[in-house]
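Troubleshooting: if your tokenizer reports a length mismatch, compare your output against this known-good record of 79 residues.
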Amino acid sequence: MIGIEELAPQDRLIVQRARRLERYLTQPFHVTEEHTGMKGVPVPLEITVKDFETILAGKLDNVPEDKFYMIGSGAGIAP
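Known-good structure output:
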């Protein structure tokens, strides 16, 4: 397997966006509150789809990946 630095710039961008999506999908669920100590956050499907479109369009490419982890919706992330 090759490292990300060995990819073409466009491929690297695709991988970085996919990693943001992966972290976005790690949500604070109500069923895990007892184990994580984090309050669950409901995110309606429409908001999830809008957030996905925003990430895939590259509007959040300047936001570090770790900002997408356990955020609920992407409303708090400024492009």
